[in-house]
Amino acid sequence: MAPPDHALWPLETEVIGKTKEKEKLDTDALPATYHYYEAAGRRAVGNPAEDMPAFLRRELSLGDLAAMMRHLWFAGAKRPAMPLHSHVAMGREITVTERMDLHLLWDNKGKLFIKPVPRFLLDPAFCRSNLQCTDACACYSPPVERCRGIPRRVALGFLYTYACLVSSESDFYVANEKRLLPCTENDKPLEWADWKILARELLRMYEREPNIIHPRFLRAELRLSRINIIHRFTSLPLFNPYLRGRHNYGSLFRDNLTWLTGATVFVALVLTAMQVGLATERLQGNAAFQQASYGFTIFAILGPLCAFGLVVLDALFHLVKDLPSLLRGPRSRTAPGRTISITKPEISA
């Protein structure tokens, strides 16, 4: 029995050229190696050609973002991705990332994370072989093998965002300048005419069947600060951000003391205003104002101390968490088809 239409790879446009050797076609489009994390939190380096299904599952994984799907309304509206030239005009810095879950996330410092298009996703033959559901797919009953539906929908949604990002020739120039689009088999940039054909095919695909792409990509740009807030309250351990922007304890204290100092100045202004109010005859006998002044004075004394204590506790928590790796020192071991590295961690706050 043939798989249903939604389980097929719908794209047919060839933009990177064809190779003559079938064996080269399957492996040449893959990266040299890929990094991933094991269950124990150890970073491992694997060979994508030795276990292609595992590589594709990790390469096209949305990570913890998949568990936050129903909360993504808080991080971004449902709309297509803005073209690249608009992001540049807004002063955003395009930062290349190979993590699918960071694609189109932006932070308050003007940094926009974009994942480049892997070469294998522009190879229709490769995608039909490795992302299209087979007759033995778990979509059927009884299931025989792991379903490729989610990785395929993620891949199609990811490519759809590029049809929106690279809509004009100026966007195409920016994408090539930032190396967001792969080269052809001859290591030359893609042709603008070929890209237009592929982009229009992606638009027709989405208009014909919107559910063919993963719902994550219906909300293109997501605010990283709000993703961090969602992650702090929906995952374990609690209060852990999705992506840390700090890499040492100095930046932790500097960033937190900056807002703490600003809050202290605001509290001082309020206390000064209350002190002036207490000096007036009209408010001296006002019991409600006296009670509010008393409560705010206690808050002004304990609030900054508690906030600073939380910053110190956060630093101590991460120090204790990283201590085993710091004491163990760098070492590595190898396993069939992969290398597992245990090194001194990058201290993050």
From TrEMBL:
Superkingdom assignment: Eukaryota
InterPro entries assigned: DUF6601
Range of residues in the leader sequence: none
Keywords: Membrane, Transmembrane, Transmembrane helix
Transmembrane recorded as keyword: yes
Transmembrane regions: 257-278, 298-320
Pfam families xref list: DUF6601
Stated name of the protein: Subtilisin-like serine protease
